[in-house]
Amino acid sequence: MNNHYLSFHFLTHKIIIIFSLIVLMMPFGASTILIADGLINPVAESYILVDKNTGVVFAGENIDKQMGVASVSKLMTAYVYFDKIKADDIDLEKTMIPISDDVVQFSLNSELSGVVFDYDQSYPLDELLSLMLIYSDNGATIAIGEYLFGSEEEVVKQMNNKCEDLGFTNTIYYNTSGLTMSDYGDLILDGTSPEDYNVSTAREQANLAISILNDYPQMLDIVSQPTVEFNGYQLNSYNLMLEGLSMEYEGVKGLKSGSTIEAGYCFTGYYVSPINNQEYISVVLNSSSITQRFNDTAYLYNWVDQAEFNTLVKEEDKFEVKIDNARGKNQTLHPSYTYRIVNSSEVNLNTKEIEYNSNYFNESGKLIEDIPAGSEVGKIKFTLLKTNVEDEIEIDSVFEEAGTFSIALMTDQEIKKSGLIINFFNSIGDFMIDFFESI
């Protein structure tokens, strides 16, 4: 896009590149996690910490490495389930889900599914969703998919289609549960091989969590629960960081854990800092143990709560901009959120380009439609640059792409296309001609 139609100036700010260089030897706060096999720094092969509202990456290691995700897969499974529930206006409490013979057989293997289902039984959809997302039950997961889509294979197809919609290029799903296909035995899905298992990256799983929370915030009503009741039994969530569980960490609201031999121990977390109410998404892939994945996550939360930030822009900031082909010379816009950057002397943050909302602008950046009040006008894209160099060379590190992020600009007033006023006068003229001809 041409960027001379929307012009402004930003001061450069500093942001951190490799936070492992920062010495953080202070102990955890009230939510202390101390275990025998725990280390101070994350030991997971891959991890990421992002701002939930802006997508800014604050920390990460191997964030684009394709790895197994185990039962964290159920976040995408839930996504397509919620899409279907919304599209068909399905009542969660009143809809009864029948349990197929295959699901019963699946549930009889304690290594594959947490609860045992009876033949010829049906259960409320909301109860099975809770079993799926809280207790990570595979049988419940498959039963819902069979009811909503006819087969698990069709659900998997929808999951991979959703990946395309979200722009994921390194995520592949082979089943709804997150198991390795060899675990399915005789129930292996069509088109798969025993060695297949679901794969993704820390970055794409973080973006998935942000997307599903934005689209279906009601899912938090499920994943924030530390227990679920089924057939008279109280079953604990596998997210041990929730309130009341063994590795409770204040501010953790969800989301999903998972583990297999191939994927190691994984966890995607949603954290609202009790210190400043900031929202974060973390992903840990292939950590070393059940508890270490939560230790890794706690380290990230503790670090970000103690890090120093610069505020790039505040939500209440105002920008006077000129929009080509809009009525009036200047328009007032403001950022969609307050954008904060971790403070460091290593890297500069510079503007890169402007991306116009294609609903209102053509490819040349000219306004072609009125913009309603409260709408996103466009995004300013930023990139991280090395300091103390003559040429602005993008950094060569894991943060090279993560350091490119966007700030959305919003309008509080309707922005009119300038051509509409001409059309208005033309319509008045046509009305008068018709009126006089009718006399």
Q: Strand portion, in percent?
A: 15-25%
- What is the fold-level CATH name, i.e. the topology of the largest domain? Beta-lactamase
The CATH class assignment of the largest domain is: Alpha Beta
Distance between the termini: 52 Å
Rounded mean pLDDT is: 81
Number of domains: 2
Give helix and strand order, one letter per element, not per position.
Answer: EEEEHEHEHHHEHHEEEEEHEEEEEEHEH
- List low-pLDDT spans: 1-40, 386-402
Relative helix content: 25-40%
Numbering strands along the chain, what is their spatial order in the largest sheet? 1-17-18-19-15-14
Task: Give the CA-based shape.
Answer: globular
Q: How would a textbook summarize the main sheet?
A: 6 strands, antiparallel
**CATH architecture identity of the largest domain:** 3-Layer(aba) Sandwich
Count of discrete alpha- or pi-helical segments spanning 4 or more residues: 10
Radius of gyration: 25 Å
CATH superfamily of the largest domain: DD-peptidase/beta-lactamase superfamily
Query: What structural class should be given to the helix and strand makeup?
Result: alpha+beta
The total strand number stands at: 19
Short description:
The protein is 26% helix and 24% strand.
